[in-house]
């Protein structure tokens, strides 16, 4: 029973990580129509910024997380404004540009911190004991903060004027323009919001997983899988599919063996795409 | 919202009594000349209809006024200012709004979110006020306010598209083929919505292939064929030609 619960909590932690990444990736794709292949790089960058602030500067971990969010959000905002904005409707160009940024960030981290993973210990080391079961507080913190971030994004999108405009842009950009909505102002904001989420994810989870220059690539790949599984463009689909993927990875790893998890996931997605090409929650043309 | 005539009285600087003026407007798509040297004008509070068959260039005129397609030549003046090169967003902020061809409601947004999206540039109080007005005028909108607009019928979507365009109380409302594909009942509903706009003193420019319901609403009309003006005048003056054009 304890093993089951442990696998469940680990699965939720993985799921929270994938959900935050998939949410940001889907936001950018839904609103800008851009596939952000640099999303994993923002995850790694968030981890390193938090590492620097927490370990090198010796400031509190909470402050390190905030710094990571702000840095990655700012970089995303500027990158969209200066680079992506000029080629926004050229799909091939945006793929190459985001891949390029991913390589630049990865190579810079490699040059500064070296190829080996750095020692970034988890800020919380205790365990929560309830009725004979133990839950590591570090994982609990990740789950709670992720849930709060997802709820925050939901409220922003569905309860504010900005969110209304972002969803209108995702739905029909031309007609959104005719409402006085300015994509040139809102696109960098949306991009920065999404990369800030990736930075938050990196700052939250790299202490308990690992932190190396290209650590984000694998996470992005699994999150991308979750995005497809949930239905490309559907935000609730991306979040729910991410949690499912996290749980599957954890339970397969616990009961069958870690190396089986990716194989099972890809097989499940393959079968699903044959049976239901639009994903679990995707409509014919899913949108934000 | 004060009527435009009241506002104008407070601004004697406005040169003429013209709200919108197209001066030899040209619209081209590649080598195709969709609109050629078209000159028309719309006065404050007036309803003008552009009648023409498919491909006559009506939608191109409407989209050029909103800024959704570029003008290849000529000038678009609004409130005495040249807006030919302005972005659609700044034209929207200046008081020009559109119910586009095919309605194009935000299909994944609820009815309420569609209406609110039209008020992006407004304060919360103004947005709520507009919403209350729409719900009073069309109670069914309030009853289904959480429904995704994509699930509505064509006639209902037309009302939502007009409501969205009205949220910001525009000075000029552009209606591109508002009756296209609608049932007689929906045409009557849409006509009622347009009358509501007229009562508020807003100017309306309607493009229509279906001359009959559009002529009932308009003061002035222009008949277009292959991008050029065939005849202009009061509704009584152009009625016969407009109705014959209707069946081309």
From TrEMBL, chain A:
Gene Ontology molecular function: any one: transmembrane transporter activity
One of the protein's GO biological processes: amino acid transport
Membrane topology, as annotated: Multi-pass membrane protein
Family statement drawn from the similarity comment of this UniProt entry: Belongs to the binding-protein-dependent transport system permease family. LivHM subfamily.
Transmembrane helix recorded as keyword: yes
CC terms in the record's Gene Ontology section: plasma membrane
Record's subcellular location: Cell membrane
TM segment ranges: 12-38, 58-79, 91-113, 133-157, 185-209, 221-245, 252-275
This protein's name: Branched-chain amino acid ABC transporter permease
Coiled coil region boundaries: none
CDD domains: TM_PBP1_LivH_like
Keywords per UniProt: Amino-acid transport, Cell membrane, Membrane, Transmembrane, Transmembrane helix, Transport
InterPro entries named among the record's database cross-references: ABC_transp_permease, BCAA_transport_permease
Record bears the keyword Membrane: yes
UniProtKB/TrEMBL annotation, chain B:
Family as reported in the entry's similarity comment: Belongs to the ABC transporter superfamily.
Any one Gene Ontology BP term: L-amino acid transport
Listed name of the protein: ABC transporter ATP-binding protein
Domain of life: Bacteria
InterPro entries in the cross-refs: AAA+_ATPase, ABC_transporter-like_ATP-bd, BCAA_Transport_ATP-bd_LivF, P-loop_NTPase
Signal peptide: none
UniProt domain ABC transporter: residue ranges: 20-248
Biological source species: Planosporangium mesophilum
Any one GO molecular function term: branched-chain amino acid transmembrane transporter activity
Keyword vocabulary terms for this entry: Amino-acid transport, ATP-binding, Nucleotide-binding, Transport
């Amino acid at each position: 029973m304890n093993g089951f619960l442990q696998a469940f909590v680990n699965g939720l932690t993985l799921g929270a990580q994938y959900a935050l990444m998939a949410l940001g990736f889907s936001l950018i794709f839904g609103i800008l129509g851009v596939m952000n292949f640099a999303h994993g790089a923002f995850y790694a960058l968030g981890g390193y910024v938090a590492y620097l602030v927490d370990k090198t500067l010796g400031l509190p971990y909470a402050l390190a997380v905030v710094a990571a969010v702000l840095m990655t959000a700012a970089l995303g905002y500027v990158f969209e404004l200066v680079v992506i904005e000029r080629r926004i409707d050229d799909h091939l160009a945006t793929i190459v540009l985001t891949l390029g940024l991913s390589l630049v960030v990865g190579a810079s981290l490699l040059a500064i911190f070296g190829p080996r993973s750095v020692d970034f210990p988890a800020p919380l080391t205790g365990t929560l004991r309830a009725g004979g079961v133990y839950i590591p507080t570090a994982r609990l913190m990740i789950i709670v903060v992720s849930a709060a971030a997802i709820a925050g994004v939901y409220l922003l999108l569905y309860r504010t004027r900005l969110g209304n405009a972002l969803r209108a842009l995702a739905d029909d950009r031309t007609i959104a323009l005719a409402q006085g909505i300015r994509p040139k102002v809102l696109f960098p904001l949306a991009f920065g919001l999404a990369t800030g989420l990736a930075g938050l994810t990196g700052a939250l989870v790299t202490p308990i997983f690992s932190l190396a220059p290209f650590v984000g690539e694998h996470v992005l790949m699994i999150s991308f899988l979750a995005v497809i599984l949930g239905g490309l463009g559907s935000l609730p689909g991306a979040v729910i599919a991410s949690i499912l993927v996290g749980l599957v990875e954890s339970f397969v790893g616990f009961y069958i063996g870690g190396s089986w998890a990716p194989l099972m996931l890809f097989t499940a997605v393959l079968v699903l795409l044959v049976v239901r090409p639009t994903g679990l929650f995707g409509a014919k043309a899913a949108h934000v | 919202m004060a009527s435009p005539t009241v506002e104008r009285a407070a601004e004697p600087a406005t040169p003429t009594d013209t709200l919108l003026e197209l001066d030899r407007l040209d619209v081209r798509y590649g080598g195709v000349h969709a609109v050629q040297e078209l000159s028309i004008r719309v006065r404050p509070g007036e309803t003008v209809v552009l009648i023409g068959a498919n491909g006559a260039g009506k939608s191109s005129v409407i989209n050029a006024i909103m800024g959704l397609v570029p003008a290849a030549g000529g000038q678009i003046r609004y409130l005495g200012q040249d807006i030919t090169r302005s972005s659609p967003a700044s034209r929207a902020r200046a008081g020009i709004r559109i119910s586009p061809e095919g309605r194009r409601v935000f299909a994944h947004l609820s009815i309420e979110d569609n209406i609110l999206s039209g008020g992006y540039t407004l304060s919360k109080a103004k947005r709520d006020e507009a919403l209350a007005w729409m719900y009073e005028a069309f109670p069914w909108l309030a009853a289904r306010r959480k429904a995704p607009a994509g699930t509505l019928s064509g006639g209902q979507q037309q009302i939502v598209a007009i409501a969205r365009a009205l949220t910001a109380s525009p000075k000029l409302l552009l209606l591109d083929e508002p009756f296209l594909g609608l049932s007689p009942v929906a045409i009557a509903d849409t006509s009622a919505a347009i009358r509501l706009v007229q009562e508020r003193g807003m100017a309306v420019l309607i493009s229509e292939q279906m001359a009959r319901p559009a002529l009932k609403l308009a003061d002035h009309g222009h008949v277009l064929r292959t991008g050029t003006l065939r005849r202009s005048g009061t509704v009584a003056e152009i009625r016969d030609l407009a109705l014959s054009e209707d069946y081309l």
